[in-house]
Amino acid sequence: MAVAQVAPATRRGMPMLGVIAVALVVISLIVGIIVAITVPTEEHFSVGVANFTTPPFLSSIPWFTRAMLLGLVAFALALSFWLAMSRNHKLVPGKRQYFGEWAYSFVRDGIARDQIGRDFQKYLPYLIALITFVIINNLWGMFPLTLFPTMSHVGWAYSLAVISWLIYNVVGIRKHGFFGYVKHSVLPAGVPPALWVLVIPIEFISNILIRPVTLSLRLFGNMFAGHLLMLVFAGGGQFLLFETAPVINKFAGGFALIFSLAILALETFVQCVQAYIMTILSAQYIGSALAEEH
Amino acid sequence: MTPMELNGNIAIIGYGLGAIGPGIGIGLIFAAVIQGTARQPEARGAMMGTAWIGMALTEALAIIGIALAFVFANFG
Protein backbone atom coordinates (compact mmCIF):
# COMPACT_ATOMS: atom_id res chain seq x y z
CA MET A 1 0.00 0.00 0.00
CA ALA A 2 2.76 2.38 0.95
CA VAL A 3 4.62 1.48 -2.24
CA ALA A 4 1.54 2.15 -4.31
CA GLN A 5 1.27 5.56 -2.73
CA VAL A 6 4.92 6.39 -3.21
CA ALA A 7 4.98 5.41 -6.85
CA PRO A 8 2.77 8.23 -8.22
CA ALA A 9 4.69 10.75 -6.15
CA THR A 10 7.99 9.74 -7.69
CA ARG A 11 6.45 9.56 -11.12
CA ARG A 12 5.24 13.11 -10.73
CA GLY A 13 8.67 14.27 -11.84
CA MET A 14 8.27 12.55 -15.19
CA PRO A 15 5.53 14.74 -16.76
CA MET A 16 7.66 17.77 -15.91
CA LEU A 17 10.55 16.30 -17.87
CA GLY A 18 8.16 15.43 -20.69
CA VAL A 19 6.86 19.00 -20.75
CA ILE A 20 10.40 20.35 -20.88
CA ALA A 21 11.32 17.95 -23.70
CA VAL A 22 8.23 18.86 -25.70
CA ALA A 23 8.93 22.55 -25.08
CA LEU A 24 12.49 22.14 -26.35
CA VAL A 25 11.30 20.34 -29.48
CA VAL A 26 8.66 23.00 -30.06
CA ILE A 27 11.16 25.82 -29.56
CA SER A 28 13.65 24.28 -31.95
CA LEU A 29 10.83 23.78 -34.45
CA ILE A 30 9.87 27.42 -34.07
CA VAL A 31 13.40 28.61 -34.65
CA GLY A 32 13.73 26.30 -37.64
CA ILE A 33 10.56 27.67 -39.13
CA ILE A 34 11.54 31.26 -38.38
CA VAL A 35 14.76 30.62 -40.26
CA ALA A 36 12.87 28.87 -43.06
CA ILE A 37 10.46 31.78 -43.39
CA THR A 38 13.18 34.38 -43.23
CA VAL A 39 15.40 32.70 -45.81
CA PRO A 40 15.47 35.29 -48.56
CA THR A 41 13.58 34.22 -51.61
CA GLU A 42 14.48 37.34 -53.54
CA GLU A 43 17.88 38.96 -53.84
CA HIS A 44 17.56 41.30 -50.89
CA PHE A 45 15.97 40.38 -47.60
CA SER A 46 15.35 43.12 -45.10
CA VAL A 47 13.74 42.91 -41.70
CA GLY A 48 11.14 45.59 -41.42
CA VAL A 49 7.51 46.57 -41.54
CA ALA A 50 7.13 44.78 -44.87
CA ASN A 51 7.48 41.43 -43.09
CA PHE A 52 4.13 42.05 -41.42
CA THR A 53 2.06 42.36 -44.57
CA THR A 54 -0.20 39.37 -44.97
CA PRO A 55 -1.42 38.86 -48.51
CA PRO A 56 -4.98 37.55 -48.85
CA PHE A 57 -5.40 33.83 -49.50
CA LEU A 58 -7.67 34.45 -52.48
CA SER A 59 -7.30 37.58 -54.50
CA SER A 60 -11.08 37.71 -54.94
CA ILE A 61 -11.60 38.11 -51.14
CA PRO A 62 -9.17 40.87 -50.16
CA TRP A 63 -10.18 41.03 -46.49
CA PHE A 64 -9.58 37.37 -45.72
CA THR A 65 -5.91 37.43 -44.75
CA ARG A 66 -3.83 35.38 -42.35
CA ALA A 67 -4.58 37.81 -39.52
CA MET A 68 -8.31 37.43 -40.15
CA LEU A 69 -8.04 33.64 -40.17
CA LEU A 70 -6.07 33.66 -36.90
CA GLY A 71 -8.56 36.04 -35.32
CA LEU A 72 -11.49 33.84 -36.29
CA VAL A 73 -9.75 30.71 -35.00
CA ALA A 74 -8.95 32.52 -31.75
CA PHE A 75 -12.62 33.48 -31.44
CA ALA A 76 -13.69 29.87 -31.98
CA LEU A 77 -11.06 28.62 -29.51
CA ALA A 78 -12.06 31.10 -26.81
CA LEU A 79 -15.72 30.25 -27.27
CA SER A 80 -15.17 26.48 -27.18
CA PHE A 81 -12.78 26.78 -24.22
CA TRP A 82 -15.37 28.47 -22.05
CA LEU A 83 -18.18 26.23 -23.33
CA ALA A 84 -16.12 23.17 -22.43
CA MET A 85 -15.19 24.62 -19.04
CA SER A 86 -18.71 25.65 -18.10
CA ARG A 87 -20.63 22.44 -18.81
CA ASN A 88 -21.14 19.37 -16.65
CA HIS A 89 -20.06 20.83 -13.31
CA LYS A 90 -19.71 18.50 -10.34
CA LEU A 91 -19.61 19.08 -6.59
CA VAL A 92 -16.11 17.64 -6.45
CA PRO A 93 -14.23 19.25 -9.33
CA GLY A 94 -12.11 17.20 -11.66
CA LYS A 95 -9.02 18.50 -13.40
CA ARG A 96 -10.91 20.24 -16.20
CA GLN A 97 -13.40 21.92 -13.89
CA TYR A 98 -10.64 22.87 -11.48
CA PHE A 99 -8.67 24.55 -14.26
CA GLY A 100 -11.76 26.36 -15.50
CA GLU A 101 -12.63 27.58 -12.03
CA TRP A 102 -9.06 28.71 -11.47
CA ALA A 103 -9.06 30.72 -14.71
CA TYR A 104 -12.47 32.19 -13.94
CA SER A 105 -11.61 33.17 -10.39
CA PHE A 106 -8.30 34.65 -11.53
CA VAL A 107 -10.21 37.17 -13.63
CA ARG A 108 -13.01 37.59 -11.11
CA ASP A 109 -10.96 38.06 -7.96
CA GLY A 110 -7.70 39.39 -9.33
CA ILE A 111 -9.03 41.78 -11.94
CA ALA A 112 -12.76 42.54 -11.76
CA ARG A 113 -13.39 42.66 -8.01
CA ASP A 114 -10.20 44.56 -7.24
CA GLN A 115 -10.67 47.20 -9.92
CA ILE A 116 -14.42 47.66 -10.33
CA GLY A 117 -15.66 47.12 -6.81
CA ARG A 118 -19.20 46.23 -5.80
CA ASP A 119 -20.99 45.87 -9.16
CA PHE A 120 -18.28 43.86 -10.86
CA GLN A 121 -20.47 40.89 -11.78
CA LYS A 122 -22.11 42.72 -14.71
CA TYR A 123 -18.81 43.41 -16.48
CA LEU A 124 -17.21 40.03 -15.85
CA PRO A 125 -18.27 38.39 -19.16
CA TYR A 126 -16.66 41.19 -21.16
CA LEU A 127 -13.42 41.01 -19.18
CA ILE A 128 -13.20 37.23 -19.48
CA ALA A 129 -13.90 37.36 -23.21
CA LEU A 130 -11.32 40.11 -23.62
CA ILE A 131 -8.50 38.37 -21.76
CA THR A 132 -9.14 35.02 -23.47
CA PHE A 133 -9.32 36.50 -26.95
CA VAL A 134 -6.25 38.69 -26.48
CA ILE A 135 -4.10 36.00 -24.91
CA ILE A 136 -4.89 33.48 -27.65
CA ASN A 137 -4.21 36.05 -30.33
CA ASN A 138 -0.93 37.03 -28.69
CA LEU A 139 0.21 33.45 -28.30
CA TRP A 140 -0.25 32.90 -32.04
CA GLY A 141 3.12 34.58 -32.23
CA MET A 142 4.73 31.57 -30.58
CA PHE A 143 3.46 28.57 -32.52
CA PRO A 144 5.33 27.25 -35.54
CA LEU A 145 2.53 27.18 -38.08
CA THR A 146 0.89 30.47 -37.14
CA LEU A 147 3.88 32.56 -36.00
CA PHE A 148 2.08 35.84 -36.27
CA PRO A 149 0.55 37.76 -33.38
CA THR A 150 -2.74 39.07 -34.71
CA MET A 151 -2.46 42.22 -32.64
CA SER A 152 0.66 43.29 -34.54
CA HIS A 153 -1.84 44.65 -37.05
CA VAL A 154 -2.93 47.81 -35.30
CA GLY A 155 -6.55 47.66 -36.47
CA TRP A 156 -7.28 44.69 -34.22
CA ALA A 157 -5.94 46.52 -31.19
CA TYR A 158 -7.87 49.69 -32.15
CA SER A 159 -11.16 47.84 -32.33
CA LEU A 160 -10.68 46.20 -28.93
CA ALA A 161 -9.80 49.55 -27.37
CA VAL A 162 -12.84 51.17 -28.98
CA ILE A 163 -15.08 48.52 -27.42
CA SER A 164 -13.55 49.20 -23.99
CA TRP A 165 -13.85 52.96 -24.53
CA LEU A 166 -17.54 52.68 -25.47
CA ILE A 167 -18.26 50.44 -22.49
CA TYR A 168 -16.69 52.66 -19.85
CA ASN A 169 -18.17 55.84 -21.27
CA VAL A 170 -21.68 54.39 -21.63
CA VAL A 171 -21.51 52.89 -18.17
CA GLY A 172 -20.40 56.21 -16.69
CA ILE A 173 -23.11 58.17 -18.52
CA ARG A 174 -25.75 55.69 -17.35
CA LYS A 175 -24.60 56.00 -13.77
CA HIS A 176 -24.04 59.74 -13.46
CA GLY A 177 -26.08 61.20 -16.33
CA PHE A 178 -24.38 62.93 -19.26
CA PHE A 179 -23.32 66.17 -17.59
CA GLY A 180 -22.63 64.42 -14.34
CA TYR A 181 -20.31 62.02 -16.10
CA VAL A 182 -18.50 64.77 -17.98
CA LYS A 183 -18.00 66.64 -14.73
CA HIS A 184 -16.97 63.42 -13.00
CA SER A 185 -14.36 62.57 -15.59
CA VAL A 186 -12.83 65.97 -16.32
CA LEU A 187 -12.85 67.48 -12.84
CA PRO A 188 -11.26 65.61 -9.94
CA ALA A 189 -12.85 66.39 -6.60
CA GLY A 190 -11.29 69.09 -4.46
CA VAL A 191 -9.61 71.17 -7.18
CA PRO A 192 -9.82 74.92 -6.38
CA PRO A 193 -11.67 76.95 -9.07
CA ALA A 194 -8.54 78.93 -9.90
CA LEU A 195 -6.96 75.78 -11.33
CA TRP A 196 -9.95 74.65 -13.39
CA VAL A 197 -8.59 76.26 -16.58
CA LEU A 198 -5.52 74.09 -16.26
CA VAL A 199 -7.01 70.88 -14.92
CA ILE A 200 -10.08 70.46 -17.12
CA PRO A 201 -8.29 70.31 -20.51
CA ILE A 202 -5.60 68.01 -19.15
CA GLU A 203 -8.11 65.64 -17.60
CA PHE A 204 -10.32 65.70 -20.69
CA ILE A 205 -7.43 64.88 -23.01
CA SER A 206 -6.02 62.20 -20.73
CA ASN A 207 -9.31 60.52 -19.77
CA ILE A 208 -11.31 60.73 -22.97
CA LEU A 209 -8.87 61.08 -25.85
CA ILE A 210 -5.56 59.48 -24.85
CA ARG A 211 -6.90 56.45 -22.96
CA PRO A 212 -8.15 54.43 -25.95
CA VAL A 213 -5.04 55.38 -27.94
CA THR A 214 -2.61 54.17 -25.29
CA LEU A 215 -4.74 51.12 -24.56
CA SER A 216 -4.50 49.99 -28.18
CA LEU A 217 -0.99 51.20 -28.93
CA ARG A 218 0.37 49.44 -25.86
CA LEU A 219 -0.90 46.08 -27.04
CA PHE A 220 0.03 46.70 -30.66
CA GLY A 221 3.46 48.11 -29.86
CA ASN A 222 4.46 45.25 -27.63
CA MET A 223 3.35 42.60 -30.11
CA PHE A 224 4.85 44.38 -33.10
CA ALA A 225 8.17 45.33 -31.50
CA GLY A 226 8.62 41.94 -29.86
CA HIS A 227 7.98 40.09 -33.08
CA LEU A 228 10.29 42.44 -34.97
CA LEU A 229 13.03 41.83 -32.41
CA MET A 230 12.68 38.07 -32.84
CA LEU A 231 12.80 38.54 -36.60
CA VAL A 232 15.97 40.63 -36.32
CA PHE A 233 17.74 38.02 -34.22
CA ALA A 234 16.61 35.04 -36.28
CA GLY A 235 17.00 36.67 -39.69
CA GLY A 236 20.26 38.42 -38.87
CA GLY A 237 21.68 35.31 -37.21
CA GLN A 238 20.74 33.18 -40.18
CA PHE A 239 22.35 35.68 -42.54
CA LEU A 240 25.58 35.87 -40.54
CA LEU A 241 25.75 32.11 -40.13
CA PHE A 242 25.05 30.98 -43.66
CA GLU A 243 25.78 33.80 -46.05
CA THR A 244 28.93 35.50 -44.86
CA ALA A 245 32.43 34.11 -45.11
CA PRO A 246 34.43 35.28 -42.02
CA VAL A 247 34.59 32.82 -39.13
CA ILE A 248 33.82 35.46 -36.52
CA ASN A 249 30.52 36.13 -38.29
CA LYS A 250 29.61 32.45 -37.98
CA PHE A 251 30.14 32.64 -34.21
CA ALA A 252 28.11 35.83 -33.98
CA GLY A 253 25.33 34.32 -36.09
CA GLY A 254 25.19 31.15 -34.03
CA PHE A 255 25.12 33.22 -30.86
CA ALA A 256 22.32 35.37 -32.25
CA LEU A 257 20.27 32.29 -33.14
CA ILE A 258 20.73 30.84 -29.65
CA PHE A 259 19.96 34.19 -28.09
CA SER A 260 16.76 34.40 -30.13
CA LEU A 261 15.49 31.58 -27.87
CA ALA A 262 15.87 33.92 -24.89
CA ILE A 263 13.98 36.61 -26.82
CA LEU A 264 11.30 34.00 -27.55
CA ALA A 265 10.93 33.24 -23.83
CA LEU A 266 10.77 36.96 -23.03
CA GLU A 267 8.12 37.37 -25.71
CA THR A 268 5.97 34.63 -24.19
CA PHE A 269 6.08 36.47 -20.88
CA VAL A 270 5.31 39.81 -22.52
CA GLN A 271 2.37 38.36 -24.44
CA CYS A 272 0.75 37.03 -21.27
CA VAL A 273 1.44 40.23 -19.33
CA GLN A 274 0.00 42.41 -22.09
CA ALA A 275 -3.25 40.44 -22.17
CA TYR A 276 -3.45 40.86 -18.38
CA ILE A 277 -2.68 44.57 -18.55
CA MET A 278 -5.22 45.20 -21.33
CA THR A 279 -7.91 43.55 -19.21
CA ILE A 280 -6.91 45.15 -15.91
CA LEU A 281 -6.82 48.62 -17.48
CA SER A 282 -10.24 48.13 -19.07
CA ALA A 283 -11.54 47.06 -15.67
CA GLN A 284 -9.91 50.05 -14.02
CA TYR A 285 -11.44 52.48 -16.51
CA ILE A 286 -14.88 50.95 -15.91
CA GLY A 287 -14.26 51.18 -12.18
CA SER A 288 -13.21 54.81 -12.32
CA ALA A 289 -16.24 55.67 -14.48
CA LEU A 290 -18.47 54.02 -11.90
CA ALA A 291 -16.79 55.50 -8.84
CA GLU A 292 -18.86 57.64 -6.50
CA GLU A 293 -17.92 61.23 -5.81
CA HIS A 294 -15.76 61.60 -2.76
CA MET B 1 26.53 35.86 -51.46
CA THR B 2 23.65 38.28 -51.27
CA PRO B 3 24.09 41.47 -49.30
CA MET B 4 21.47 42.05 -46.61
CA GLU B 5 19.93 45.45 -46.38
CA LEU B 6 19.93 47.15 -43.03
CA ASN B 7 17.72 50.16 -43.52
CA GLY B 8 18.31 52.77 -40.86
CA ASN B 9 16.49 55.92 -39.90
CA ILE B 10 17.15 58.78 -37.53
CA ALA B 11 13.64 58.32 -36.09
CA ILE B 12 14.84 55.24 -34.24
CA ILE B 13 17.33 57.43 -32.36
CA GLY B 14 14.38 59.55 -31.28
CA TYR B 15 12.72 56.40 -30.04
CA GLY B 16 15.86 55.49 -28.12
CA LEU B 17 15.85 58.89 -26.44
CA GLY B 18 12.15 58.56 -25.71
CA ALA B 19 12.70 55.19 -24.05
CA ILE B 20 15.03 56.64 -21.40
CA GLY B 21 12.25 58.09 -19.28
CA PRO B 22 10.03 54.99 -19.19
CA GLY B 23 13.13 52.89 -18.50
CA ILE B 24 13.94 54.91 -15.41
CA GLY B 25 10.29 54.95 -14.38
CA ILE B 26 9.83 51.19 -14.63
CA GLY B 27 13.05 50.71 -12.70
CA LEU B 28 11.72 52.95 -9.93
CA ILE B 29 8.40 51.07 -9.82
CA PHE B 30 9.92 47.65 -9.44
CA ALA B 31 12.57 48.93 -7.03
CA ALA B 32 9.73 50.10 -4.84
CA VAL B 33 7.96 46.74 -5.20
CA ILE B 34 11.12 44.85 -4.23
CA GLN B 35 11.63 47.07 -1.21
CA GLY B 36 8.01 46.69 -0.20
CA THR B 37 8.19 42.91 -0.58
CA ALA B 38 11.34 42.80 1.51
CA ARG B 39 9.70 44.76 4.29
CA GLN B 40 6.32 43.07 4.17
CA PRO B 41 6.36 39.83 2.16
CA GLU B 42 2.66 39.06 2.67
CA ALA B 43 1.61 42.26 0.87
CA ARG B 44 3.30 41.14 -2.35
CA GLY B 45 0.11 40.16 -4.19
CA ALA B 46 -1.58 43.49 -3.64
CA MET B 47 1.56 45.36 -4.64
CA MET B 48 2.09 43.41 -7.85
CA GLY B 49 -1.38 44.29 -9.15
CA THR B 50 -0.71 47.99 -8.68
CA ALA B 51 2.80 47.59 -10.04
CA TRP B 52 1.56 46.11 -13.32
CA ILE B 53 -0.85 49.01 -13.80
CA GLY B 54 1.91 51.47 -12.99
CA MET B 55 4.24 49.75 -15.41
CA ALA B 56 1.60 49.83 -18.14
CA LEU B 57 1.00 53.54 -17.64
CA THR B 58 4.71 54.31 -17.51
CA GLU B 59 5.66 52.45 -20.63
CA ALA B 60 2.93 54.19 -22.64
CA LEU B 61 5.48 56.86 -23.61
CA ALA B 62 7.90 54.28 -24.97
CA ILE B 63 5.11 52.57 -26.90
CA ILE B 64 3.93 55.85 -28.41
CA GLY B 65 7.58 56.51 -29.20
CA ILE B 66 8.01 53.33 -31.20
CA ALA B 67 4.75 53.92 -33.06
CA LEU B 68 5.79 57.48 -33.92
CA ALA B 69 9.25 56.29 -34.94
CA PHE B 70 7.65 54.13 -37.61
CA VAL B 71 5.34 56.98 -38.61
CA PHE B 72 8.18 59.46 -39.04
CA ALA B 73 10.42 56.89 -40.69
CA ASN B 74 8.13 57.03 -43.70
CA PHE B 75 8.65 60.78 -44.08
CA GLY B 76 12.41 60.43 -44.47
UniProtKB/TrEMBL annotation, chain A:
The keyword Glycoprotein does not apply. Pfam families: ATP-synt_A. Keywords: ATP synthesis, Cell membrane, CF(0), Hydrogen ion transport, Ion transport, Membrane, Transmembrane, Transmembrane helix, Transport. Signal peptide: none annotated. It comes from the Bacteria. PROSITE patterns: ATPASE_A. It is found in: Cell membrane; Membrane. The keyword Hydrolase does not apply. Belongs to the ATPase A chain family. HAMAP family: ATP_synth_a_bact. Key component of the proton channel; it plays a direct role in the translocation of protons across the membrane. This is ATP synthase subunit a. It comes from Microlunatus endophyticus. The lineage of its organism: Bacteria, Bacillati, Actinomycetota, Actinomycetes, Propionibacteriales. The gene is atpB.
From TrEMBL, chain B:
Keywords: ATP synthesis, Cell membrane, CF(0), Hydrogen ion transport, Ion transport, Lipid-binding, Membrane, Transmembrane, Transmembrane helix, Transport. The keyword Transmembrane applies. Coiled coil: none annotated. It comes from the Bacteria. GO terms for cellular component: plasma membrane; proton-transporting ATP synthase complex; proton-transporting two-sector ATPase complex, proton-transporting domain. It holds the Pfam family ATP-synt_C. Gene3D superfamilies: F1F0 ATP synthase subunit C. It is found in: Cell membrane; Membrane. This is ATP synthase subunit c. Belongs to the ATPase C chain family. PROSITE patterns: ATPASE_C. It is a multi-pass membrane protein. The record marks 59 as: Reversibly protonated during proton transport. F(1)F(0) ATP synthase produces ATP from ADP in the presence of a proton or sodium gradient. F-type ATPases consist of two structural domains, F(1) containing the extramembraneous catalytic core and F(0) containing the membrane proton channel, linked together by a central stalk and a peripheral stalk. During catalysis, ATP synthesis in the catalytic domain of F(1) is coupled via a rotary mechanism of the central stalk subunits to proton translocation. Key component of the F(0) channel; it plays a direct role in translocation across the membrane. A homomeric c-ring of between 10-14 subunits forms the central stalk rotor element with the F(1) delta and epsilon subunits. It comes from Microlunatus endophyticus. GO terms for molecular function: lipid binding; proton-transporting ATP synthase activity, rotational mechanism. Residues 11-71 form the V-ATPase proteolipid subunit C-like domain. The chain crosses the membrane at residues 12-34, 46-73. The keyword Cell membrane applies. InterPro entries: ATP_synth_csu_bac/chlpt, ATP_synth_F0_csu, ATP_synth_F0_csu_DDCD_BS, ATP_synth_F0_csu_sf, ATPase_proteolipid_c-like_dom, F/V-ATP_Csub_sf.
